[in-house]
Design brief:
By secondary structure, this protein is mainly β. It is built from 5 helices and 50 strands. The longest helix has 9 residues, at about 1-10. The N and C termini lie far apart (about 65 Å). Mean pLDDT is about 85; it is low at about 1-20, about 110-120, about 280-290 and about 880-885.
Length: about 900
């Protein structure tokens, strides 16, 4: 019955629509020139809520989504022009209405936003920082990721993850449309940088808040890229292929067709030079290597993406990707384990080979009308792989004598399947501002693993052990949730929202272990078992919301009832503990001026334990690391507060600050026990509390006369957590302080230099004994430079250096990586490149990282691909609609 109710909610019928009318027209200046990109809003006269909206096309024409018959207030705005206001009355007989030409007058003074620099380098608009792309110029045929990296507060990790002020970007739009779905990496690596007019960094609202037009304080990092007029219809892409000695090869390509808000994108790649993505970060041959992935990796991938505007109200997007990776990694690990009586040492050298084939896809539909909005989306991920690993290890006691040594190997295959679907439906009901929204989600997860492990361990003062075991693991999960919210206006710009939320996560874990003796599989009952887990929650909430141009307030609370049940199949008592919590939340956002904004947000949440943490099965397939589930775990209760400030000051200076506080009760942590043989046994338990605080500041300033830009980002993070080691409770604290700096010098298209540096000093204090205090420094430095000379030639170089060091080991380990690129541009408009690439010029073969936890500090060193050469050829495709350029 519950599942039937869920699917009924998922398929709620759309409200019957009254007779509607479509309005269209054209926006021009006083000379009759079409204005592309103007904003057209149709508002309800009583409360100014937006009933319909559109943006003018390249010819200045617009077409508003259908609205009900009645009286409206039309607003047309365009940067540099006076706003246009007009009352609209739609007669009862109208099905369409032609508003004809709407003429905008040039504005003598612009006061609507705060801008810096004559070319309007940055504009601040409440939740949006808008940058002029031409102020951060890139070379011809560069991709959007090279433009984004130049913006203050924007970072792109080596794996392609896009971040703004340290937070992951969750969605990316092109002219307000998700042309590439949720595939952010494909969007920023495919779209040409010089096709972009504006880059908007947005604190976006979730679907229900966007539908209602009422800000409830919830946010997600979003980027919108607006295109130049001539680039709104175009074909673009590039193909690069290269090869070199030692059978090194790399090839990749993408083709994109954008026409009338419809997009078709095809990508492909293949290489054995450690590039994991469907596209690279550089231009031409620079995209083929130097990614810095550890080990030796061969990758082949292909994908297709489509976006279709199916009528006035509906758009559909779909994508499919295939990826095959084969990775070989050598790792050397040194770990210091902290015991109440001293420090032990663990050494390990390992070899891993992992081959995996994966398929992923996405399908989404959005239908927007005057009274209703429907959003459907679904994704799937399917992968199968094979893992082969070997490691040799040694353990030393607190007196530095050998306690044990041995070796272990694993051969395993696994299959993973994840399917997710979601639906959002919003309906406006009669009275203006009154609405009903529902959000529904469902997911299915399946994992199957079949592996064999071998281990032999020699203990100095105890009998040696030999293990040969086969493991069959199955995991099944079905999760679904539904939220229904009703919003009622209670006064001018004030609302009350009542909501109900229900979710259920049902999991089943089946573990079968067999000891192999003389070729016979003997079932091991201690390490085998079937465990069922269920986490059922219900929440009832009430929230008050106030929205004014300068102040947004959201105050609410939810009462949650949760049932966490766990039962071993075939015997054992079922546990059904019930947990009741109040989940308050609050957001206050003040627009202090047109250039400054301050916000404060507080939220609470519940994190239930996973079935792997709950299942009461002993795992001994690694004789030195034994794990045990704990079915009595309680959910973790988190409190989180965030203070955010940002401002654009005079003299082209931008400032932002984010302060984050987290407090957790009943945190789920690892209780570790090491015996006299240094065998580690781990079980998850609930301890009293964990606390953490962090601050990130950002200062960015441009120097136009020096062709430069400088950004400085200091950071600070403090944390305190409880540990349980050999039954002894301890409290450990960690302080991490440092920051980063980024400098850019760009002189026209002749020279482009970028310098970056990051330094973090981490100090960990273990309160059980002061002799175990640790302090280590992680530093990274990078530089890239490009020089264009003799009209058709360019020389580029990149340099990266990672250093780690600690007080326990006075020596520092550095991993410099240096690459060079020499290119000759060919054909008309420099459409092609012939590039000679030298990767890892210093032939560094390893790099180190260092990590500190509550119970140990470890340093890991992994191998890197050695020096190699590539000669590559790149063909750049770019064709714009000649009509848009007036040709």
């Amino acid at each position: 019955m519950k599942k039937n109710l869920f699917f009924l909610l998922l398929l709620l019928p759309l409200a019957a629509l009254a007779q509607e009318c479509v309005l269209f027209g054209q926006v021009v200046d006083k000379k009759g020139k079409a204005l592309s990109g103007a904003t057209v809003l149709l508002r309800l006269p009583r409360d100014s809520l937006v009933a319909s909206a559109a943006t003018t096309a390249a010819d200045g024409r617009f077409r508003l989504p259908p609205v009900k018959l009645g009286t409206y207030y039309l607003t047309v705005t365009f940067l540099g022009y006076m706003p246009h206001f007009q009352n609209i009355i739609i007669p009862s007989s109208a099905r369409t209405m032609d508003l004809r030409n709407i003429v905008l007058q040039e504005a003598p003074v612009i006061l609507e936003s705060v801008s810096v620099r004559g070319v309007r380098e940055v504009v601040v608009k409440q939740d949006t920082m808008e940058y002029s792309a031409d102020s951060y110029g890139t070379l011809s045929y560069a991709a959007a990721n090279q433009l984004l990296e130049k913006l203050p507060g924007v970072e792109i990790d080596p794996d392609g993850t896009l971040k703004v002020q340290g937070e992951n970007v969750t969605r990316i739009f092109v002219d307000g449309k998700e042309l590439y779905g949720r595939d952010i990496k494909r969007a920023i690596s495919s779209l040409p940088a010089n096709a972009i007019n504006k880059v908007q960094l947005i604190d976006g609202k979730p679907d229900d808040a966007k539908f209602s037009g009422v800000d409830d304080g919830r946010r997600e990092k979003v980027i919108n890229l607006t295109l130049k007029e001539a680039s709104q219809t175009m074909s673009y892409g590039k193909i690069t292929a290269g090869g070199g000695p030692d059978e090194r090869y790399a090839a990749q390509g993408n083709y994109n067709q954008l026409h009338n808000d419809n997009l078709l994108s095809v990508t492909g790649a293949g290489n054995n030079v450690n590039n994991l993505g469907l596209s690279g970060a550089g231009t031409g041959g620079q995209a083929l290597g130097g990614v810095g992935q550890p080990g030796r990796v061969t990758t082949h991938a292909a994908g297709v993406n489509g976006y279709v505007q199916a009528g006035e109200k509906t758009n559909i997007n779909a994508s499919y990707d295939f990826r095959q990776t084969d990775r070989q990694v050598l790792t050397s690990l040194t770990r210091q384990n902290f015991l109440p009586t001293g420090t032990s040492l663990y050494l390990e050298n390992s070899r891993l080979q992992n081959r995996r084939d994966s398929h992923s896809g996405e399908l989404g539909l959005v239908r927007s009308g005057t009274a209703t909005t429907l959003r459907l989306s679904s994704t799937f991920d399917y992968s199968q792989g094979r893992l082969d690993s070997y490691n040799g290890r040694q353990s030393f006691g607190i007196d530095q004598t050998l306690v044990n040594e041995g070796e272990r190997s694993i051969n395993a295959g696994n299959v993973d399947l994840n399917i997710r679907a979601s639906a959002f439906l919003g309906v406006r009901l009669g009275k203006k501002g009154r609405m009903l929204t529902t959000s529904n989600d469902m997911s299915v997860n399946r994992t199957d693993t079949d592996g064999e492990s071998r281990a032999s361990t020699v203990f100095v003062n105890s009998p040696s052990t030999t293990l040969l075991q086969r493991n069959l693991d199955q995991y099944r999960e079905l999760a679904y949730s539904s939220r229904v919210a009703y919003k009622e206006p209670i006064g001018k710009r004030q609302y009350l929202e009542a909501s109900y939320f229900a979710s259920n996560r049902e999991s089943k874990s089946t573990i079968e272990a067999f000891d192999i003796t003389n070729g016979t599989n003997l079932f091991d009952t201690e390490q085998s078992g079937v465990f069922n887990s269920r986490f059922l929650t219900q929440r009832v909430g009430l929230a008050y919301q106030l929205n004014t141009p300068k102040l947004t307030v959201s105050l609410g609370t939810m009462a949650q009832d949760a049932l966490l049940s766990g039962s071993p199949q075939g015997g054992g008592a079922e546990l059904r503990p019930r947990f009741r919590h109040l989940l308050p939340n609050a957001t206050v956002k003040a627009q202090m001026s047109k250039a400054s904004q301050l916000s404060l947000a507080y939220s609470t949440s519940i994190r239930p334990p996973t079935i792997g943490q709950l299942q009461p099965v002993v795992s001994r397939n690694d004789p030195l690391n034994i794990s045990l589930g704990n079915p009595t775990l309680r959910p973790q209760y988190d409190h989180n507060g965030v203070l955010t400030f940002r401002s654009t000051l005079a003299f082209r200076l931008q400032v932002s600050a984010i302060v984050n506080l987290t407090y957790s009760t009943d945190p789920v942590v690892s209780a570790v026990s090491l015996d006299e043989r240094l065998v580690r046994t781990t079980q998850f338990v609930n301890l009293a509390q964990n606390r953490s605080a962090g601050a990130v500041l950002s200062f960015s300033r441009s120097f136009p006369k020096l062709y430069s830009r400088l950004e400085i980002v200091p950071t600070l993070r403090l944390s305190e957590g409880n540990t349980l080691l050999n039954g002894v409770m301890g409290t450990n604290t960690q302080q991490a302080a440092g920051g980063s700096a980024k400098y850019n010098f760009r002189f026209k298209e002749v020279a482009d230099i970028n310098l970056r540096a990051s330094l973090i000093n981490t100090a960990t204090r273990y309160h059980l004994t002061s002799t175990q205090h640790q302090q280590f420094i992680s530093a990274s430095y990078s530089a890239d430079a490009l020089l264009r000379f003799l009209k058709h030639y360019s020389l580029a170089a990149t340099f990266n250096l990672l250093q780690v060091g600690s007080n326990a080991n006075s020596s520092q380990q550095a991993a410099p990586l240096c690459n060079f690129y020499l290119s000759r541009r060919l054909l008309k408009a420099d459409r092609c490149d012939l590039t000679l690439t030298l990767i890892n010029a210093l032939n560094r073969s390893a790099a180190a990282t260092q990590t500190a936890t509550q119970s140990y500090v470890e340093k890991t060193t992994q191998n890197f691909l050695g020096r190699f050469y590539l000669l590559s050829f790149t063909y750049n495709l770019r064709k714009e609609d000649s009509r848009e350029k007036g040709e």
